[in-house]
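Journal club prep — side note

Before the paper discussion, L.F. wants everyone to see what a predicted structure for a comparable chain looks like in token form. Sequence:
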Amino acid sequence: MPDTLATLDTPAAVIDRARLDRNIRRMQTRMDALGVAFRPHAKTAKCVEVAHAQLAAGARGITVSTLKEAEAFFAAGVADILYAVGIAPAKLDRALALRRRGCALKLVVDNVEAAAALAAFGRAHDETFDVWIEIDTDGHRCGLLPDQDALLEVGRLLSADGARVGGVMTHAGSSYDLDTPAALAALAEQERAGCVRAAERLRALGIACPEVSVGSTPTALSAQALDGVTEVRAGVYAFFDLVMHNVGVCTLDELALSVVATVIGHQPDKGWAIVDAGWMAMSRDRGTSRQRHDYGYGLPCALDGTPLDAFAVSSANQEHGIVSLADGARCADIADRFPLGSRLRILPNHACATGAQFPEYHALAGDGSVTVWSRFHGW
């Protein structure tokens, strides 16, 4: 007989397939309405089945964060891949091998030195790399400023033999710090305008720069218009998580990833139930601690997915999670509420980090059966 949530070894990472499919349709429908292509970020799930569902819904290619992902997805039949992390010179041989096997791999740089090294490598190996320039539109992480002089120098270097400018890309990661529709819409417009400005400057220099790629889950779901943008990228939308719930772009019943855990003991005098999902299962990510609602290490739910809003995984050790009242009060009947051997589904703070703790997912179908979906690991 197939496994169910009641028979899985715990802790187990579970994908609710109905929620996953609904999330995928929601994002693709929005991108279609805005008139842009959609390139989902595969780093969240790192799973062939999820990527195939996104492509079947209408996505154009995928985004990855490691060359390991690019290699694995290409082996699974996905050829249009953006490696959206600045390429390290030591990884150029692997990138070249992928392109020589037919992968339409796009690389990213954000500085003069990397651009020069990549173009020189391409010339030395008689390869013209498709290179996108990362633009900083919110001061969050990497990238060149849209009006920075170095942007044009990078464009010139990549327009010589060995490379070509395939486009510009940006990621408004600071959107995770926001929680109002107005602020999210304003950042989405800032992201759009900055990336389009960078493309226009390159084009004025005679550099084609055909693609303008923007994206984060919050800005993708908040943008009012995307004039000048050719594609959007987003990743965590497929699963959503408690951070995204606090940002305000999803409801709890849209969270598709959870961790099934078993109650293994109690500390009645402290009002604790102990489960077998510690930070090795949930991850160390405490992203909600900086938001308006702190969920600890996760929000416990009944096995049917009903949130137990009064409770939280308030603390965690490596293999032990502590479930207690979220307000810090003592639950006098904790052992009755969560009997030994009973099971909970815990919603994660950060789906990418929690997924990374597991070598596989258990995809939950509408009839209650689960199917194993493998997950990639490594770089």
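L.F.'s comment for the group: The longest strand covers residues 257-267. Keep this in mind when we get to the figures.
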